[in-house]
Amino acid sequence: MIKKLLNTLVIFLLISIAWQTNAIEPMHDKSMFINGYPESAQVTSLRLDFEALGFTDYKLDGINNNSRVDFTNRIDKLSKNLMLNFSYTNSPSLIANVSHLKVYFNENLVTVLPINKHSSVVKNTVNHNLALNSKYIQDYNQIRFELVGYYDLTCQDYFSRSIWTEINKSSNITLDETSLAIDSRLEYLPEPFFDSKDYSKLMLPFVFATTPNKETIEAAATLSSWFGAQADWRGADFPVLINKTPEQHSVVFITNTSKPDFLADYPDVEKPTIDIISSPINRYKKMLLILGRDEKDLKTAVNGLVFGHKIMTGRSASIEGVNQIPMRKAYDAPRWLRGDRPVHFSELTDYPTQLQAKGLNNGPIKLNIRLAPDLFTWREKGIPITLQYRNTPEDETLDSRLNMLINQEFISGFILERNDSALSTTKTLLPLIANSDTTQNTEDFSLDGIDLAKRNELNFDFRFAVLKKGECAVAPPGGEYGVIDGHSSIDASGFDHYIALPDLNVFANSGFPFTKYADLQQTLVVLDNNPTPKAISVLLNLTGHFGAITGYPGHRLTVQHLNDNIDYDDKDVLVITKPNTATNNVDDGSQTNILLHNNQRAIKQAIYNGAYDDDDAEKIQINVKSSGDMAVITGFQSPFDSERSIVSLTATTNKAFTLLDNALMSSESLELIKGSAAIINTQGIKTIKTDKQYFVGHIPVHTLIWFHLSDHPFILALLSILVLLLISFILWRLLQALTYKRLAEGDK
User: Using CB atoms within 10 A as the burial measure, which of 48, 122, 220, 334 is most buried?
Assistant: First the structure.
């Protein structure tokens, strides 16, 4: 709480914002844009399949007799005509009249359905269509099924396999959503542009009057990274529109000299400004206006928005000034485990009861963790975890367990204490298991079940045992609790940072090396001189992806065009171009030409599937004119700095940019992007991995020597012998000198 308060105070000191309301705007009349044009509210019919909602508990039994399906309601939508359409199959052993299925909507009992009512005829499937009362709908909604099942009235064993009901996977919820004309108020931000209650992918168009220059693109990339951080695991897509009126919630960038036609009469501003208005063509859709006198003002306005939106109110806010925002340190992204100290589990939680499990039928406690992708874990036993937990007292004859899993893979298990006298503490490891390939491959030093490049799910599953009394086993009396103490910790502070590159899988899944600094302070983006909207959209989606990875806006990103005089020193470079425009208007002796030359060589090697080395690939000339769409992702060492990397995204057409975009934004495709190059076409993704690697990061000298010679035992043995001989020679010379000294003293 104190940390959050301090952060708020810092933000308040960094950003001074003068907010304005409609009543105190003496200079400009914006009332014509407040409500937009009147029209009927749009009504959309939706079908929410249980499977799409993440529902997995289809089978109910005597112990696991509750099952829940969750869905949400957006701030700008009104849901009506809710229908629950489901079917289920019962066990024929269940007794009619006493067995039944309860259905709840937000803990309001909707109906009680009899089971096997006509015992002489047992139906395989029972279908129901239940109307749900719209007055019970909330922001977060839950439908709960509860089975009350009996197969024997005298001796009921709740663990009997005769008690079951299975809900059909085709079950769904249908509803009508009516758009709401909500107020245009900045305090709602990031709603309605991003609504945390909407679990679907964020779709937010960015609108420009003309092709944006590099300063405007930097502002847009900062804003997309912020929205990407809000969207997190949902993903985000930022289509780019040039002078077109969007049909949904959108962001519009406007300067006094560059306005889209649909806002041509919008008043000029005298300082960086943030406005929210209704769309001129649809009052139920909102526009977030980024306003400035020039492009420099747009960057100031965006920085004011992403760091100061919590203290903005009303429909309009002008940014009086943005003071110096502190530079981020390496590896300090808010969503990465800290590398300078152990991290407590309480720092990783999203809600207060996340570390608590209740009842016999409890789901696992889940924590999401993301590690720096370049952790050097070679020959390490594991990442230390100090685990503290407690549970309700157990019977002496029972053995209840706590299982620990990572990404659904079992790591270790613990017997729960039978008394409640003290907190149980144990030290364990997330084990490290190397592959059988060469040790100089980054895939070799990975965690068992953990991918260093991805977000991982750490599960703690309390499994309570049940005591059987007499001939019939009864369900436990209830009140079983298991708690992982918030002071439990995971410690990644003892690891150096060292990684073999190029590795496009690391780039695609973690944004490395660009996300090493969460604010992208050492990232340089190079675009065509006149980038297409699709190319800009690829950049915005990528920076949104980076924001989701780091949880921080990349406001220090630098954008340049190919014909600019670019300084590549001390920068990781991201190139997004078309191959036919990449070499136009570039000076032969410039650093950009050197970069493009290296990029063309990497692309050729990728196309020829790595069958030739760099020199041979460069000599090959094949002239083919093709109308197809192809994109290539390549990674290689910067020719300007051995510690820096270049990642190039090249697309032959606008459709190829779409292929590239889809590959980078799809979790399934991200699994396929790896190695040093990836070729993307309509048939899928093909990757290659060259033998030419380079390493970035720092490790101690003795570890560096040992690591790089570990695959060459004879050289290592020879070097060891030479070192021993050298030490022996030094000792021999030292002893010889001491002998001469004693002899000289004896002569005296």
Answer: 220
